Amino acid sequence: xxxxxxxxxxxxxxxxxxxxxxxxxxxxxxxxxxxxxxxxxxxxxxxxxxxxxxxxxxxxxxxxxxxxxxxxxxxxxxxxxxxxxxxxxxxxxxxxxxxxxxxxxxxxxxxxxxxxxxxxxxxxxxxxxxxxxxxxxxxxxxxxxxxxxxxxxxxxxxxxxxxxxxxxxxxxxxxxxxxxxxxxxxxxxxxxxxxxxxxxxxx
Amino acid sequence: xxxxxxxxxxxxxxxxxxxxxxxxxxxxxxxxxxxxxxxxxxxxxxxxxxxxxxxxxxxxxxxxxxxxxxxxxxxxxxxxxxxxxxxxxxxxxxxxxxxxxxxxxxxxxxxxxxxxxxxxxxxxxxxxxxxxxxxxxxxxxxxxxxxxxxxxxxxxxxxxxxxxxxxxxxxxxxxxxxxxxxxxxxxxxxxxxxxxxxxxxxxxxxxxxxxxxxxxxxxxxxxxxxxxxxxxxxxxxxxxxxxxxxxxxxxxxxxxxxxxxxxxxxxxxxxxxxxxxxxxxxxxxxxxxxxxxxxxxxxxxxxxxxxxxxxxxxxxxxxxxxxxxxxxxxxxxxxxxxxxxxxxxxxxxxxxxxxxxxxxxxxxxxxxxxxxxxxxxxxxxxxxxxxxxxxxxxxxxxxxxxxxxxxxxxxxxxxxxxxxxxxxxxxxxxxxxxxxxxxxxxxxxxxxxxxxxxxxxxxxxxxxxxxxxxxxxxxxxxxxxxxxxxxxxxxxxxxxxxxxxxxxxxxxxxxxxxxxxxxxxxxxxxxxxxxxxxxxxxxxxxxxxxxxxxxxxxxxxxxxxxxxxxxxxxxxxxxxxxxxxxxxxxxxxxxxxxxxxxxxxxxxxxxxxxxxxxxxxxxxxxxxxxxxxxxxxxxxxxxxxxxxxxxxxxxxxxxxxxxxxxxxxxxxxxxxxxxxxxxxxxxxxxxxxxxxxxxxxxxxxxxxxxxxxxxxxxxxxxxxxxxxxxxxxxxxxxxxxxxxxxxxxxxxxxxxxxxxxxxxxxxxxxxxxxxxxxxxxxxxxxxxxxxxxxxxxxxxxxxxxxxxxxxxxxxxxxxxxxxxxxxxxxxxxxxxxxxxxxxxxxxxxxxxxxxxxxxxxxxxxxxxxxxxxxxxxxxxxxxxxxxxxxxxxxxxxxxxxxxxxxxxxxxxxxxxxxxxxxxxxxxxxxxxxxxxxxxxxxxxxxxxxxxxxxxxxxxxx
Lengths: 203, 957
Prior knowledge:
A: mainly alpha; 56% helix; B: five-stranded mixed β-sheet; elongated; disordered N terminus
């Protein structure tokens, strides 16, 4: 990674970091809500956990990394999340009506929009801006395109995995950005925390 | 050549050794039947019940029952030998059957529909079969060769040498395990050998997989799910919609469960899990198409438009929703209940077929119609209406309509009132409307249909609004309201339907005077009625079209005579009024009304001649308000007041309060209750009387009531009321109940004795005051009084010895010279000790009052008036009195005051009952008289006299 500049930046940078951290925390809350709505819609048990290859593939975020490298990896992961979310929205059947459906659809839109804002905020924090390409998923990972056999059940699981990825990476973004902020806390401490997710080991 | 060994191989060999039906076949077949006991014609094998616990999935076995009795065998063998001999004798007539079995058998499947397709070609030997050939088809579970279905398929002889297709739907998904199919041909009792097994391989997986995948099933059906586990895996659970289900072991790593679909699935399918939520499938549950009532028609004479009712919702969406085809052509994708296709309409009567298809079924609806007789016209366009000549024009978008004989409906909407008119003509495009009201706004709409072969009315056009021309107003309804010397000419404002346009002004003419009144004013005050011309008033209304017909009213020369009002009771918010006929009512009657006690503008209604009743209704009527209704007779001259009524539309409980309630005690048991009634303007009902309620405050339950009619004054004496404390209230009695409660008053009644004492005290006080006054006056004018009443008496001359007191006595007894029975005077002198004893014998002088009025007391001389130790005088009886004598020795005493003292003493003696017998010369009965006088002060004399008279017995002397 090209970013070698230290993160002891100017006050405006710190402010941007704090804002991005707050945005990530808010987005994580929205993703958690979206996941709950999806579980309810598809009658998935809350304890349902997904396994297998991860849809988002970035090198692991290590505390030994330089801040800019860490931001690059985070940015790459969020970008993959956005692509997956767009695919999920495109493939998911819009069925049903009523209040629950409207709430779910609104939540999807909220997450999509806010994820775009977080991506832009994260990009602005990078030392070399948008000039460097982000990590891309492995080409051999065919799961990112979703099930090919048209099975509704497989499609359900695939979307569920995407929402799980979203929830995980927004939590990671929130924690990482908080750590990068000198104060170590966002201006608006929300007190919410992500679910315990000890099952994952990010590559 | 013939082998008794039982088995397919030998059986086959036997078949191949002789191309005709042989004894070998029969015997072998019979032995197979008997020993193997396997049915030739099986039935579809059903899965065991899913509710049972996990068990091996085994079709019902065909247990062999050996009937191998030697008798049967021998019989069959002999029978076959007999047949064989017959065949050999008639070999040329027999069909010469040699069944080679189905050829080119192929098996295919549709995993989605769980369907097995079998194709084969005819048995070559079937050409020699005169009747139908039968093929036996068997479906087996490959792993254990368990039969799951068998079926006999008829093939007619005329279909010989053709390719046959057969299919079967498996309840168990074909992925769950491998299935095999075999066939054979059969003619009468001859069968071919089974075709080689054709196998459909089941699915194997490294992780749990659930089948069928994404199936669509009908509500109220059963569906079998199977879970195929990976090698070495164990089944933990199968769940349907998160509900744990019972499973059945099919074979090896395959398990099944059967679910009854009770209700439609949500738009998102229902999940089925095996071992983990990550492994599963989902199922859509819905209904097949339920459309009905297909109707086809044409709108534009260029296309057909069919519509139908969708019926019950299928609950299937997206790719699974119902797709429609009309006469084989697909309807647009979003078709729900109608389908449109361009066609030629001049093809006469034809069939229109709609096919509705979804994954659960296909439905066909048919309609037969000649589209030329099924024309529903489109809506007219550009509808324009003109108020000048009240005509309506419109256009047709389709040129074909111009040659059609059509009938059109024109709907006129005027303030919510709908008027429908029908017109007909070829290619109708305009109509003229008649009978429209002037200056009114109408909205017109048009729709048309074919007059010949009328099918349905077409669509309504959009509405077009227009306004008709104005016309002169209708005549005004005029009346009058007389107030003292003034008369108000009133008229009702014209409604929109009456004014025929906007009223510009009103013209009032009386005599030679004319006045213009502008709306909204609709009355005119005439104060001077002195001239004759002034009694006739004319009113007209004017709009842009002209003036209305004049309305005339004649004001009476003299005020109406007052009439006694009769009570009337309203009903349903009005009055049902009736009156006696008036001989003068040549042009009917006028009834006007107004609140009795408040100012108002009159309202009125005119009643035609000959009718003497009317229902009086007004929006201004209020409940609880008294109205006066006047009935006038309409005459050629001025109206005459005929009758008058007063009443309430609806009586209400009095809202006003009875005022000034007072209670006053009059006499020992009488209370006067007085009050003032509810003012007439506050009365909300006719008051029929008052009720006085009272009770003893010490006994609140002792409530009593007393009715007072309105004929009585607003005061009432209540008698017979015991002395106590009372609470009084008064209520007004109306036809709707009691009301107008007064404020309560309390009265504490006093006993009569108290009053008597009061009177006595007052009287005594008054007397004391009077006496005091007299005393004061007498004191101040004492001299005058004294001179007038007691003229001065010269002082008597006393001799000293006469006045010398006796020894030992403070009292002297005057002796009379001649002791004749006479009156004696006793003079008690005040002594130092305050006591004196008068002894008639103690002195020689006698005190005689010649002028004394004291009656003569007859007694004896020498009687001693002894002094008691108590200081009382004691008279010894008989009387120790001296009679007054004119022959007294010495000086004559003339001081009347002395006489007065004696007199006083005597009076006292009389007052205690001592009455001397003055007529008796002898002594009275020697009866003891004890006279005791309590000394009292004689203010006027300044000392106390205490007398004690004792009638002593002579023995005491």
